[in-house]
UniProtKB/TrEMBL annotation:
Belongs to the glycosyltransferase 8 family. This is Glycosyltransferase 8 domain-containing protein 2. It is found in: Membrane. Residues 1-21 form the signal peptide. One of its GO terms (cellular component) is Golgi apparatus. Pfam families: Glyco_transf_8. It comes from the Eukaryota. The lineage of its organism: Eukaryota, Metazoa, Chordata, Craniata, Vertebrata. GO terms for molecular function: UDP-glycosyltransferase activity. It is a single-pass type II membrane protein. Keywords: Glycoprotein, Glycosyltransferase, Membrane, Signal, Signal-anchor, Transferase, Transmembrane, Transmembrane helix. Its main location: membrane.
Length: 350
């Protein structure tokens, strides 16, 4: 009897262990991430194949960011992850605009930018106060916003993309370069350049060469400037070179010494980048940054040229959602109406 009882106990123990094993398998099968299973899963390349695009959505011009996003998404088959950056009081509106419009299909993350990081680094300037708004400096802090990507595209909100964004993402960055920009001397022709009266395309237009600190940089005032409204950035190299810290240093120097101001050509965000990246950046294909569309409402590019362009940028005061402006029909074709009815177009001719 004792032997039989012993056998029954062993069998019961084995039965319990078998049931536990089955339950364990079932529970843990459900918790394994899809891209980590061996069968019936997507290849683990999704993160590598994602193209991260950073764009800011400011309260008064949120429609600009939505139009830019729409144009990018509509002209590519690539897997885009949009990082839409806003201040805390706009985050719910950004989400509503995306989720209650044709943009609901996009892959996106909403990122809050805390302007406290700018405290003591921006000099008050009344000539163009819109250039001092916090989101204008998001491009300085890309590594703080983007963590899991090696390469990132940053775009100003007043752009429209007509080409496949994959091409821009494939821009080659030279060894040791943390970013690629468009040179301001790469406009299609001198004839086009001459139409933009007063346009600055050298360092002289951005930095105050009367100041010793600027002179001591040893940069010729006739050096061609670049436009940081379109950036292809290597985040690893950016962190390695401590680019953000360098930019902040020059922001603080400007507060102390007034080395540049928005009364000069490009405002307060371009100037520190010109200093930090001087001689240390790669270049973007000129067709991927056709700019100055917002410079003068009486100046137009040829329609044929605009059709060839991959990216259009309305930098300047004359935005395509406002009046007066030029080539606004190209921008308006990508406009996504505001579900809340707050953002409205202003194209009245009188």
């Amino acid at each position: 009897m004792a032997l039989l009882r012993k056998i029954n106990q062993v069998l019961l123990f084995l039965l319990i262990m078998t049931v536990c094993g089955i339950l364990y398998k079932k529970v843990h099968k459900g918790t394994v991430p899809r891209n980590e299973t061996d069968e019936d899963s997507e290849p683990p390349e999704e993160m590598e194949d994602e193209i991260p695009v950073v764009i800011c959505a400011a309260a008064g011009r949120m429609g600009a960011a939505m139009a830019a996003i729409n144009s990018i998404y509509s002209n590519t088959d690539a897997n885009i992850l949009f990082y839409v950056v806003g201040l805390r009081n706009t985050l719910s509106r950004i989400r509503k605009w995306i989720e209650h419009s044709k943009l609901r299909e996009i892959n996106f993350k909403i990122v809050e930018f805390n302007p406290i990081v700018l405290k003591g680094k921006i000099r008050p300037d009344s000539s163009r106060p819109e250039l001092l708004q916090p989101l204008n400096f998001v491009r300085f802090y890309l590594p703080l916003l983007i963590h899991q990507h090696e390469k990132v595209i940053y775009l100003d909100d007043d752009v429209i993309v007509q080409g496949d964004i994959q091409e821009l993402y494939d821009t080659t960055l030279a060894l040791g370069h943390a970013a690629a920009f468009s040179d301001d001397c790469d406009l299609p022709s001198a004839q086009d350049m001459n139409r933009f009266v007063g346009l600055q395309n050298t360092y002289m237009g951005y930095l105050d060469y009367r100041k010793k600190t600027i002179k001591d940089l040893g940069i010729s005032p006739s050096t061609c400037s670049f436009n940081p409204g379109v950036i292809v950035a290597n985040i690893t190299e950016w962190k390695h070179q401590r680019i953000t810290k360098q930019l902040e240093k020059w922001m603080q120097k400007n507060v102390e010494e007034n080395l540049y101001s928005s009364s000069l050509g490009g405002g307060v965000a371009t100037s520190p980048m010109l200093i930090v990246f001087h001689g240390k950046y790669s270049t973007i294909n000129p067709l991927w940054h056709i700019r100055h569309l917002g410079w003068n409402p009486d100046t137009r590019y040829s329609e044929h040229f605009l059709q060839e362009a991959k990216l259009l940028h309305w930098n300047g005061r004359h935005k395509p959602w406002d009046f007066p402006s030029v080539h606004n029909d190209l921008w308006e074709s990508w406009f996504v109406p505001d579900p809340a009815g707050i953002f409205k177009l202003n194209h009245h001719s009188s």
